[in-house]
Amino acid sequence: MACGLPPTWPPSLSPHPGMAATLGRNHSSVSEFILVGFSTFPRHLLPAFFLLFLLMYLFTLLGNLLIMATVWSERSLHTPMYLFLCALSTSEILYTLAITPRLLADLLSTRRTITWAACASQMFFSFTFGFTHSFLLTVMGYDRYVAICHPLRYNVLMSPRGCACLVAWSWVGGSVTGLVVTTAVFHLTFCGPNEIHHFLCHVPPLLKLACGTDVPVVAKGVGLVCIMALLGCCLLILLSYAFIVATILRIPSAEGRHKAFSTCASHLTVVIVHYGFASVVYLKPKGPQSLERDTLMAITYTVLTPFLSPIIFSLRNKELKTAMTKTFLRKLHPSSI
User: Which residues cross the membrane (predicted)?
Assistant: First the structure.
């Protein structure tokens, strides 16, 4: 599934001749930024970080592509739950593509500059695919709620058209959120210095480089948008699982309860990992923090979480694991299957 940029992007964020950007009345004197990132770490550690993150990145791509190929090739997996899983894998691939290649390049480079336009693009795509991921996790929670709490109405509520609409609205919601956040931040004036204390163009370190009376307003507005979106998704997932648990507890047999819960185990685990790491990063107590510690903590949700997601879905979902094994064996020994 592709997610195109709106027709108005990037004219409203395009650089002005002789300036970094012209945004209405605001003019920025900064034409490029420096991503500090891992440059504060000892140089002898950088090749090790590069190799580790490269392997995790390749495994993330391979795992998600394998999930998508398995769902595509196995007709038994052509159900709403696995349609949503394919959409989730797509968003994870694109999310890591927006962040990790740049991170890997900077680990081996002595020049870690990024242009104003490239910085704005990275922020837009990372927020778009990141929020799309959260919205899709919410949709998957709703799918499990309908399957367990209203099984007789499942085919009606989760019709092909209804599923397509849910996926489409998840991508629209992610794109709108990314556009709103990026436009708000890059309408600010950046007067220097131009060092971003992060390995990607993220909102908090960029706001520290902005000047003008609008900065506090933008900071509160962007924070409110992000918190409302993420908290809304989290609350909807919690509500879905509250009804799911209540329904499962009413199932008389232990085997029935186990079977019902097993269909939710992989999704629930990914949700816990996703919001758990995000909470550690964003809800950490305020105070003096070393740049190295902040950088490693940011790796948890930009590299580690996408890396763990396909592993969890492959190992915790018995039906998918069986189908992946069957598909793999069919490729190796076509005559024996």
Answer: 45-69, 81-104, 124-142, 163-190, 222-249, 261-283, 295-315
